Amino acid sequence: MDKLAGTIAVMISLLSPLAAAGDKPANPEAYLYIGWPNDGEVIAAGKPFRVWFGLRNMGVAPKGVDYPNTGHHHLLINTPLPPADQEIPSDRNHLHFGAGETEAMVDLPPGRHTLQLLMGDDRHIPHKPPIYSKKITVTVR
Fold it and tell me: What start and end residues bound the annotated signal peptide (predicted)?
């Protein structure tokens, strides 16, 4: 019986994060996009450029605000989408805009870069289903 109880405890601990993560429903008609820069844009090196975020059929709310059909933006730079059932990382490739910002100044080194938006809920976890933009490529030179 002790072995069975231990196995059940391990299974619960492994499944609990999945049950709690990504449980905020998203509007199925939500549409997230990068308004600027455009895919394929060539950007002058040496100075920050503005990236503006577009969202339809959902609202923007700061982190910590638990309100239906809202979330906040995360800009993914040169990285794939993170796991949908976990908190979005916060590092130089995963920029958080938890105050509800809808644009940002970004400074990238010369070269090709990918940009993609991902909505996160009040806890920085993607919605269910995840709301993300098309990935675009920009060249800084």
Answer: 1-21
- What are the domain boundaries of the chain? 2-140
Segment 61-69 long-range contacts (CB within 8 Å, at least 24 positions apart) = 61/100, 61/122, 62/98, 62/99, 62/100, 63/96, 63/98, 63/99, 63/120, 63/122, 63/123, 63/124, 64/98, 64/122, 65/122, 66/121, 66/122, 67/122, 68/25, 69/25, 69/26, 69/27, 69/30
Task: Note the CATH architecture for domain 2-140.
Answer: Sandwich (2.60)
pTM of the model: 0.84
Model pLDDT for residues 83-116, shown as the tens digit of each residue: 999 999 999 999 999 999 999 999 999 999 999 9
